[in-house]
Amino acid sequence: MKPNALLQLHPMTKFYFSLFILAVVLIVPGYWFAFSVFLGLVAISLLAGVFKEFIGIVLKALVSVLVIVFLMQIFFFPGEQVLWRWWIFEIKQEGVYYGLILTSRILAIGSAFVLFFRMTEVRDFVKSLEDKGMPPMGAYVVLSTLQIIPEMRRQANTIMEAQKTRGVETEGSLFVRAKAFIPTLTPLILSSIAGTEERALTLESRAFSAPVKKTSLHKLTKSRADRILPILFVLIILGLLVWRVVLWQTS
Amino acid sequence: MKRSFKDDFSLMAMLLIPIGVAINIVGFQLTNVLRLPIFLDTIGTILVGVIAGPWVALLAGLITNLINAIFNPVYLPYALTSMAIGVGAGLLSKFGFFKNVPKTIISVIVITLIAVVVSAPITVLVFGGATGNTSSLITATFLASGQQLWTAVFSSSFIVEIADKVVSVLIVFFIVKGMSDRYLSKLKYGHLYMKRRNRS
Asked: pLDDT (tens digit, 9 = 90+) per residue, B7-38?
């Protein structure tokens, strides 16, 4: 399989692209633009071959939020022009407009970040931050967090099963379920905290805090596109800002 | 004993961050499994603040929301809330506000206020008032009864946050009580919670 050119970009370039989308969407007025940015992101995800994961997360995480945000605006945004009325509910023109602006922006910015994490391995991103000057300790913390979460999730299940056998109820009324929370969480926290001492010993025995320059097995390279694209992003943003200011002064 | 800013980030403190973040995320998932109406997604941040200080907790809060945002970008703006809660918990701990139950209750109130004051503006400005969790329903009810948007969001998030923070802070209080002196002695504010101190 040929490596995908978009996925091969330096993580920082992809990150700048997400920030670029954020800035552009906030600068350009109107909802048509933000919705077309989203379509552009969908096209990028197709080209990068991450369409399935991308759209899955957008649908699962964002759409329900967008529906609620939109409903809130059309019913409760203060306005004069009433489009539709039923009992205490009123749909107003201004609310529909503001709702569309807000949802289109959240959709565009949110999916830009979803796309970023679909196209970038967290490992590569952390490495590129380290190259930018983040201490190696920070990189270790982020990566080990990602490892610990599934581990602790498994442990939480084990503890919950064990407490069930002891007779702690996890089904039933709200109060019964709430009571099951503490006997699951407390042992989980105390046991994982006890594990950090061993981790510290292991790391120190490998000179983790030694004040020397660390060498890394994992290397990232920058291509020509990685040097040109960030400059291009900045130029477009500056252009849009100038356009916005001119538009604002002539109106 | 004067400690510099850099000393806050000792190896033990840094190793506590992944645990704190994982507690936040696993705690939140447990509330989903048990179908509880609160989130309990700041237990780890508060815990880190109490024993390792405000700056370490700030990092823990930030990382929690960044990792949550990988799968749901709605969490991204609320990173500010998590960070503020972490700093708040750390400062409260510095002045001994987690030592006994009455003082802990004051901490609950302060942390709730921090959470509300930081998260409500985000909810209003970024999401227009609702993000689809438990408090959105309450917000909508307040709005339908004729309240202003800001008042509605502030009061609904206060109702949800106070329930959340009472449970979170009390869990932290009892967990810190259950920690061994050997472990506490290695962390910034650990000496405040060691049992031996009372004997001498």
From this structure: 778 888 889 999 999 999 998 888 888 888 78
Over chain A (251 residues), the average pLDDT of each successive run of 10 is 75 92 88 91 91 90 87 78 70 84 91 92 89 86 91 91 88 82 88 88 88 82 87 92 85 63
Supply the range of the domain harboring residue B18: 5-199
Inter-chain CB proximity B26 and A122 less than 8 Å: no
Quick one: which of A226, A241, A240 has its CA closest to A17? A226
Q: At what angle do helices A136-166 and B11-33 cross, to 10 degrees?
A: 40
Spatial distance between the Cα atoms of A106 and B9, rounded to a whole number of angstroms:
35
ipTM of the complex: 0.85
Which residue does chain A place closest to B139, by CA atoms? A72
Q: How far is it, in rounded angstroms, from Cα A163 to Cα B47?
A: 23
Is B36 touching A (CB cutoff 8 A)?
Answer: yes
Note the pLDDT tens digit of each residue in B177-195.
888 888 888 888 888 888 7
Q: Are the Cβ atoms of B128 and A68 closer than 8 angstroms? A: no
Yes or no, beta carbons of A156 and B14 under 8 Å apart: no
Single out the residue of B144, B146, B141 nearest to residue A89, CA to CA: B144
User: How many whole angstroms separate alpha carbon A68 and alpha carbon A57?
Assistant: 17
Kindly list the distances between the CA atom of residue B193 and the CA atoms of A135, B5, B155, B176, B200, in Å, as whole numbers in the listed order.
30, 21, 34, 7, 14
Per-residue pLDDT, B198: 55
- What's B32's domain CATH number? 1.10.1760.20
- How many beta-carbon contacts under 8 Å exist across A and B? 161
SS3 B80: helix
Tokens of A232: 């291009």
Number of compact structural domains in chain B: 1
Tell me the average confidence (pLDDT) per consecutive run of 10 residues in chain B, 200 residues long. 66 91 91 82 94 94 92 90 96 92 93 94 87 78 83 89 92 89 87 70
| CB-CB neighbors (< 8 A) of A110 in chain B | 73-74
Q: Measured at the alpha carbon of residue B94, what is the angle toward residues B88 and B95, in degrees to the nearest 5?
A: 100
From chain A, pick out residues whose CB is under 8 angstroms from the CB of B21: 145, 148-149
Question: Comparing C-alpha atoms, which of B63, B50, B54, B55 is closest to residue B24?
Answer: B63
